[in-house]
């Protein structure tokens, strides 16, 4: 079968390969892959910065954002039927089964020895068929088939926002405004989730106002700010919530100044090394105004399930906005195009059907 593979640690190693179809173990489901989303992590694996193949193998099947149908089930699986639509979660528990992994929160794994489909020691879903442990599959209603490939990135922001509200139970808190840094998939989905909570949302990115990214933001009732014209340190507003999704360290650091008293800032980027000097202002801001910053990675099944409910709400409230996030759909043979930089792109998917 066709699979998009890479050699982790080797720059530019992504290729279309022919590999044997996997066979499901007793606890697993064989999935026929329909759609696959490509994101920055896939590009980082191809860049040689990230990832590891399964033990004893020289390559890794890429892909962790997907939608598939159940093709066959292992003999211990009884809650899935052939043809059902499913989305698998990405991370699997560590072999030590640490406190968090054994409580269904492998996204909070303590040992760091977890496995991740398409990233770390487990093949991903960028292939005509793939296997997953049945316990980590989320059933998808037919009416979400067109957008459910976005459930994995939705789960990332769903976790961030859930954690923000959980953390802020430290006090009486009634947030009114939020700032989203970046207008890619995380920025767009985050904006929609925050608009569902009736917050006034501002989104900052580098694209001009006429760009699709800006127009989509504004069609949710959020405000779009072009940072090339209006740098974020010139904004007069302060925000109760900031979600940082650009992965650009200077913006991530500077944005503490735009956080309101008692506000909370969540970092979702993977920040590369930078020459940025750590500013003492940052600490003063945190202390004197009770500000709080935290980081968040991955998402467990609970956040996929919350994401599914919210995708339905988004569809009801904003119509076909979600499908507009998919800016290109490629055949597996066109995979190279998904790994080229494209500033106008929001989400590129590979269609395996
Ligand atoms: Zn663990």
Architecture overview:
The chain has 353 residues and is α/β, with parallel strands linked by helices. 24% of the residues lie in helices and 27% in strands. The protein has 9 helices and 19 strands. It has helices at 40-46, 99-102, 151-167, 185-196, 212-219, 249-254, 280-288, 301-318, 321-324; strands at residues 2-6, 15-18, 28-38, 60-61, 65-73, 85-88, 91-92, 115-117, 121-122, 129-133, 137-139, 177-181, 200-205, 223-226, 239-244, 259-267, 292-295, 326-330, 347-351. Strands 3, 5, 6, 10, 11, 18 and 19 form a 7-stranded mixed sheet that branches. The protein has a 6-stranded parallel sheet with strand order 14-13-12-15-16-17, with helices on one face. The chain has a 3-stranded antiparallel sheet with strand order 2-1-4, with no helix packed on it. It is globular. The model has no long low-confidence stretch (mean pLDDT 96). The structure holds zinc ion. Zinc ion binds at residues 93-94, 98, 100-101, 106, 109-111, 114.
- The helix-and-strand class reads alpha/beta
Number of strands: 19
Bound molecules: zinc ion
What share of the residues does DSSP label as strand, in percent? 25-35%
Q: End-to-end distance, in Å?
A: 13 Å
Topology:
Blueprint (H helix, E strand, L loop, with lengths): L1 E5 L8 E4 L9 E11 L1 H7 L13 E2 L3 E9 L11 E4 L2 E2 L6 H4 L12 E3 L3 E2 L6 E5 L3 E3 L11 H17 L9 E5 L3 H12 L3 E6 L6 H8 L3 E4 L12 E6 L4 H6 L4 E9 L12 H9 L3 E4 L5 H18 L2 H4 L1 E5 L16 E5 L2
Parallel strand pairs: 8-9, 12-13, 12-15, 13-14, 15-16, 16-17, 18-19
Antiparallel strand pairs: 1-2, 1-4, 3-5, 3-10, 3-19, 5-6, 6-11, 7-8
Helix pairs in contact: 3-4, 3-8
The structure holds zinc ion.
């Amino acid at each position: 079968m066709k699979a998009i593979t890479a050699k982790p640690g080797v720059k530019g190693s992504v290729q279309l390969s022919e590999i044997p179809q996997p066979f499901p173990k007793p606890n697993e489901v064989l999935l026929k892959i329909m759609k696959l989303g490509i994101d920055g992590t896939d590009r980082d694996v191809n860049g040689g910065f990230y990832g590891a193949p399964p033990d004893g193998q020289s390559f890794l099947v890429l892909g962790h954002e997907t939608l598939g149908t159940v093709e066959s089930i292992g003999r211990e699986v009884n809650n899935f039927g052939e043809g059902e639509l499913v989305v698998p979660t990405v991370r699997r528990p560590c072999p030590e089964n640490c406190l968090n992994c054994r409580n269904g929160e492998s996204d909070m794994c303590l040992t760091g020895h977890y496995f991740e489909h398409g990233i770390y020691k487990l093949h991903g879903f960028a292939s005509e068929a793939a296997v997953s442990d049945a316990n980590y599959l989320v059933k998808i209603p037919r009416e979400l088939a067109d957008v459910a490939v976005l459930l994995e990135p939705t789960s990332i922001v769903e976790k961030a926002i859930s954690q923000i509200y959980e953390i802020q139970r430290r006090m009486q808190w009634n947030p009114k405004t939020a700032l989203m840094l970046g207008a890619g998939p995380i920025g767009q989905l985050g904006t929609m989730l925050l608009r569902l909570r009736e917050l006034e949302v501002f989104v900052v990115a580098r694209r001009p106002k006429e760009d699709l990214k800006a127009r989509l933001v504004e069609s949710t009732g959020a405000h779009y700010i072009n940072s090339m014209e209006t740098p974020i340190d010139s904004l007069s507003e302060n925000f109760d919530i900031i979600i940082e999704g650009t992965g650009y360290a200077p913006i991530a650091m500077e944005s503490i100044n735009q956080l309101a008293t008692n506000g909370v800032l969540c970092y979702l980027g993977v920040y590369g090394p930078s020459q940025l000097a750590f500013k003492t202002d940052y600490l003063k801001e945190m202390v004197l105004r009770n500000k709080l910053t935290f980081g968040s990675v991955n998402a467990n099944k609970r956040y996929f399930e919350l994401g599914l409910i919210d995708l339905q709400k988004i569809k009801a409230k904003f119509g076909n906005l979600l499908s507009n996030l998919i800016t290109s759909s490629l055949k597996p043979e066109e995979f190279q195009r998904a790994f080229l930089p494209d500033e106008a792109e929001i989400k590129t998917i590979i269609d395996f059907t």
